[in-house]
Amino acid sequence: MNVSACESLTHTSEDSVSNDLPEPLKEPSIIKQNKWVSTLKKAFSSRNFLKSLILGQCLSLLLCGTGVFSTLLQIENVNVPTAQSFLVYFALGIVFTTQLAYKPGKRNLVNILRSWDGLKYAIIGLIDVEANYLVVKAYNYTSITSVQILDCFSIAVVLILSKLLLHTHYRWTHYIGVAVSVLGLGGLVAADVITGKNHDDGTNVVLGDFLVISGAVLYGISNVAQEFVVKNFKKSEFLGMLGLFSTFISGIQVILVERDELSRVNFSSYKVVLPWLGFFFFLFMIYICMSYVIQKTSATVTNISVLSADFYALIFGIFLFGYTFHILYVISFIVVIVGVAVYTLRPTDATAEGS
């Protein structure tokens, strides 16, 4: 037998001995590495993750659509966010409030309005209207980068309120998942800066940042309230009551705040009408789909999933607005998805109690 054959036999024998060693005798680093690989494989192949991924990315695409059409409206100097939302609330009222009015049983429109729940829904409607208005208005005063970063305050609000009001029990994997997803958003923002997408520093950064934070806090409150309702009652009830109260609130606000700007909008131009209709359709679908996504997952998963919307906005922006592609967009998108996978690795324990 030659020397190379002896060496091969020796290595083979050593490998077989190594493989036969019990777990305690193997290298600790190898054991940990194998556990992490097994955990990640489990996370990416779990039904919970796949459901959260598909639903969350559909919502991100819809959110991207509203952003694209809103940008097209801004190009035409149309800046009436409450008026744009008013049509959506009105449509929700026609579809779901009408359905709620003819619903038999205790949870119909009349009984809800007679109870304290009616006042609670009125507050939720006010919160939702002002959240939309504040965040959109902030673009007039601060940079897109600031809006993207500070809008993450909604995730913190959802985490805190879910723990306090819905009694959600978070594990360390949930906090890591949120942190990883936010890190992915940071990469998306950094890519925007590198490609020169966010070149406007804003006219009043302090005011703009304050508006973003305020809007993000209100978004968080609205999302947690929505999670409680859709998991304890029905999605149609939340959408119906939201449509009822938000239509009146946004209508009054349009008259008081946006009347002059609305009168200057050129509705005879297809460059205004078509983006307005597109914005209406996508935002209407967002409200319907978000209720379903929150019901099937949670407000927290929904908020971290839509962080990837900026990636889809880039894809459309390349063709519509001449945005520049950067590989960091793809890497950041993957990081966001990994964060969602880590978050959904373990389910949260929520009793959904509250009032």
TrEMBL record:
<dbReference type="Pfam" id="PF06027">
    <property type="entry name" value="SLC35F"/>
</dbReference>
<keyword id="KW-1133">Transmembrane helix</keyword>
<feature type="transmembrane region" description="Helical">
    <location>
        <begin position="238"/>
        <end position="256"/>
    </location>
</feature>
<dbReference type="GO" id="GO:0016020">
    <property type="term" value="C:membrane"/>
</dbReference>
<keyword id="KW-0812">Transmembrane</keyword>
<protein>
    <recommendedName>
        <fullName>Solute carrier family 35 member F2</fullName>
    </recommendedName>
</protein>
<feature type="transmembrane region" description="Helical">
    <location>
        <begin position="173"/>
        <end position="194"/>
    </location>
</feature>
<keyword id="KW-0813">Transport</keyword>
<feature type="compositionally biased region" description="Polar residues">
    <location>
        <begin position="1"/>
        <end position="19"/>
    </location>
</feature>
<comment type="similarity">
    <text>Belongs to the SLC35F solute transporter family.</text>
</comment>
<feature type="transmembrane region" description="Helical">
    <location>
        <begin position="85"/>
        <end position="102"/>
    </location>
</feature>
<dbReference type="GO" id="GO:0022857">
    <property type="term" value="F:transmembrane transporter activity"/>
</dbReference>
<feature type="transmembrane region" description="Helical">
    <location>
        <begin position="276"/>
        <end position="294"/>
    </location>
</feature>
<dbReference type="InterPro" id="IPR037185">
    <property type="entry name" value="EmrE-like"/>
</dbReference>
<dbReference type="InterPro" id="IPR009262">
    <property type="entry name" value="SLC35_F1/F2/F6"/>
</dbReference>
<dbReference type="InterPro" id="IPR052221">
    <property type="entry name" value="SLC35F_Transporter"/>
</dbReference>
<feature type="transmembrane region" description="Helical">
    <location>
        <begin position="49"/>
        <end position="73"/>
    </location>
</feature>
<feature type="region of interest" description="Disordered">
    <location>
        <begin position="1"/>
        <end position="25"/>
    </location>
</feature>
<feature type="transmembrane region" description="Helical">
    <location>
        <begin position="206"/>
        <end position="226"/>
    </location>
</feature>
<comment type="function">
    <text>Putative solute transporter.</text>
</comment>
<feature type="transmembrane region" description="Helical">
    <location>
        <begin position="141"/>
        <end position="161"/>
    </location>
</feature>
<feature type="transmembrane region" description="Helical">
    <location>
        <begin position="327"/>
        <end position="345"/>
    </location>
</feature>
<feature type="transmembrane region" description="Helical">
    <location>
        <begin position="301"/>
        <end position="321"/>
    </location>
</feature>
<keyword id="KW-0472">Membrane</keyword>
